[in-house]
Amino acid sequence: MATLAHTVSRADPGGGTGTGTPARPRSVRHLGPNWYAAVMGTAIVAGAGAALPFTATGARLAYQAVWALSALMLLALLVARGVHWVRHGDQARRDLLDPAVAPFHGCTAMALLAVGGGTLAVGREVIGAPAALAADAVLWSLGTLVGLTAAAAIPYLMVTRHRIDAGSASPVWLLPLVAPMVSAALGPALVPHLPAGPWQQTLLYACYALFGMSLLATLLVLPLVMSRLLHHGPLPLALTPTLFLVLGPLGQSTTAVTNLAHVAPGVVDASLAPAMDAFAVLYGVPVMGFALLWLALATAMVVRAVRNGMGFTMTWWGFTFPLGTCVTGAAGLARQTGLGVFDGLAVALYALLVTAVAVAFTRTALGLARGHLPAPPRPVTP
What we know:
Layout: E1 3-5, H1 36-51, H2 57-87, H3 89-96, H4 106-127, H5 129-160, H6 175-186, H7 198-232, H8 247-263, H9 273-307, H10 320-337, H11 340-370, E2 378-380
Antiparallel strand pairs: 1-2
Helix pairs in contact: 1-2, 1-4, 1-10, 1-11, 2-3, 2-4, 4-5, 4-6, 5-6, 6-7, 6-8, 7-8, 8-9, 8-10, 9-10, 10-11
């Protein structure tokens, strides 16, 4: 299997000059859709933090600062990617036809959704509730539209245009498929703000439909990923962090069902709300259990990769957003069950999330400052 990764060499801190001196900043030609993962990972620190049982003023201020940073990152990246499409349309089209890069277009939708969700969760205390609601409504609608497009278009391209080698299944394939699940998880926050009756019910059931399409698509891909690992061995070192992407649909689907069950009373028929509540627990607890099992496996594989010399690449952002979804999933289960053990799990996972974001953010900032990011992708072969 050959694939691509944006790599920063340990041996050349100067960014590829071979002299240890800063390299010239690269153009946006190689600013791929994978960069939206940095926005996702940063934004979910605020969104997941708001779901924790911490109400201290200092914590809220920290969440607000991180949300503001993620919003600025999203704005800057949207502009830069716009320039990329205008000035380097050939590269943008090449990215769509590259099976190693195309799935990252799902990150665009998830970045929009994550910042929108953070705006309503913590940004309302900064810009006011009406502005936060309007921003979230726009970002959720746009993110959902982009996510649905990616969920349909990327598999279509994989079938009709991409040439995929046998045994090359990758966790990256999940990225466009999990985007609708993010919409399903964040859409319930908008339900109470709609007129009672059909409007609220339509959005609630639409989120369940988004949950279903993403879940079933994920169930088709996960066996391929596991089969690839069992029959072809570990992923290349630079791609090992992508194993954490499997946590995304697991944590996000748990978040979705718990959030949907939370807003269901008063929106759906009185006989359905208890069933939704029961489904949230009966689905969420086993899935969270599997998420913890996969976290242990993925962590062991990362430790192995580090011992074998894994250096920093932009795939390190794969550690962040999936962990954040497990935080919100555990927090949702704590709310639904009333069990403090899920609160404890959410806090522990949040500590891992903050650590992962701090490391990835610092290494990315250094790469940008030294001028060797964004860099052209290098082929990676196991």
